[in-house]
Structure formats: structure tokens, C-alpha cells
Amino acid sequence: MAEYRRLREELAQNITAEDLEQLKCACKEDIPSEQSEAIATSHHWFTFLEQHGKLDKDDLSYIEHIFEISRRPDLLTMVVQYRTHVLKISEEDEVDTKLTRIPSAKKYKDIIRQPSEEEIIKLAPPPKKA
């Protein structure tokens, strides 16, 4: 449970007010407009999703879907890492489970990794003027 809380907190820290509006819009079919207006923070959004059965420590498929359609591969990557390391669902297994609605989520796994030394382009200093 501590890992799940840590994931929720990390996700919440990476969701700005503008992002939250986009995420709420992406799930407008599941959040009535009057309740959507009352959701002011990402913490409230996660709590709402949990209370309505859309989010659980063992089932993150709904937010995976929302992060993908909202074009937030950075957040999706965090969820995929949680699923792989904490829930112990490997990339091969994830296609066979019902825990994800988007087997394509693994394509985002390496998107936010740091480049290796070989991948970094070194620029030469600018030429000196005579």
C-alpha cells in the first residue's frame, strides 16, 4: 500500500492545474459536470476515481487509458513501472491480463529515460573570429 501511495503522490506532483482540467475532460463520461467542477486538485481527482471504482492499488487500467488519451507518456510510464515492479506483472504477462486496457502502454516505457553517453551529441566550440 505504501508503494501505491508513493505512486499517487508522485503522479499528483506532476499534474498541474492545467493538466488536471485536461484529465477531467478526458474522463467527462465518468465524472458528472457538477462533480467535476468540485475537483480542484489532482489529489481530489484520484480520490474521486477511487471512490467510484475507477482506480485501485491493483487496477490502474483506467488512469493508464486517461494518461494515454491525454498524451501524458511521462505519467503513463510511472504507472507502467509501478505495475511491472510492484504488482510484478511483466511486459509479456501484461498483454494477457485484464489489468490494462492498453497493451500498447509498454511502448512508452523508455520515453523519459536519460540518454547514454554515446547518444549525447557533443558540439564543437564556435569558431573564433579573426
Automatic annotation (TrEMBL):
Highest taxon of the lineage: Eukaryota
Signal sequence range: none
Gene Ontology biological process: apoptotic process; MAPK cascade; regulation of apoptotic process
Record-linked CDD domains: DED_PEA15 (cd08338)
Domain DED: 3-81
PANTHER family named in the record: ASTROCYTIC PHOSPHOPROTEIN PEA-15, DED DOMAIN-CONTAINING PROTEIN
Record protein name field: Astrocytic phosphoprotein PEA-15
Source organism of the structure: Crypturellus soui
Gene that specifies this protein: Pea15
